[in-house]
Design a protein that fits this description.
four-stranded antiparallel beta sheet; 2 domains; N-terminal domain of MutM-like DNA repair proteins; 6 helices; alpha+beta; Helicase, Ruva Protein, domain 3; 282 residues; single chain; elongated
Length: 282
Amino acid sequence: MPELPEVETIARGVDARVRGDRIVEVWLGSHREPFKTPTAAQAKGLEGRTILRVHRTGKHIVCELGSADARSASDSHPTAEAQWIVHLGMTGRLLVTTPEGPVAPHTHARLTLASGREIRFVDPRRFGRLEFRNLGRTPAFAGPGAEPLTIDADSFAALFRKRRLAIKAALLNQSLLAGVGNIYADESLFRAGLRPRRMAGRLSRAELERLRIALGEVLKQAIQLGGSSVSDYVDADGVRGFFQLEHRVYQRGGEPCRVCQTPIRRIVVGGRSTHYCPQCQR
């Protein structure tokens, strides 16, 4: 599943290509799974809207939408009237292409823009979700947990106080931190020198601060490298990321640690495959 850096990379790429463009036609597929909003209502809500900006909230891509004449309004920062919310699920892709580009199998949405471009949502396993919100009737979308790139030290420490679960499981809890998944939990714990099975509520303030800093550094580096392509992930142009080349423990079970040469161990924490170095992590 794409995690925060992958979703951030896609959102930035889509925003750079379609901000200010207008949706003139919408085609939605017949499979019901990807659509949280019924297809007829979703198509009607999207057509004619101007894309004000595209950004990430947690693991979701949020397209802020205005009226058809939003670009020519006297207000240089028009207020969004609606949102199109994309969750990529396990195998989802959000691509910006041209109408002449080959249509991939399992394409569930095609948004034709006034510029001639198309936004396409492709998802072979159909675990992704597409939702339309009219902000005059429904609250704006908000992530379930704190934003790991901007959370301060006090707020981060408070998330884990008295938590009786492994720190790896706590990092994956989206109600605590929005957007962190298996890859970046493993990598940040390695850089912080913490074993994944340690109880979150028993970590010292200094250890939690190491983890907060490590998590931020890992996420920012991954964004700079376009995310990790370990499965189906590609960016808005269909290009793979490169952070997988920087992985120090994730999916490296049995291989030597790049710091101390001790074999990386694979265990299961909270039902998730987990990798760590028994020498570097305590």
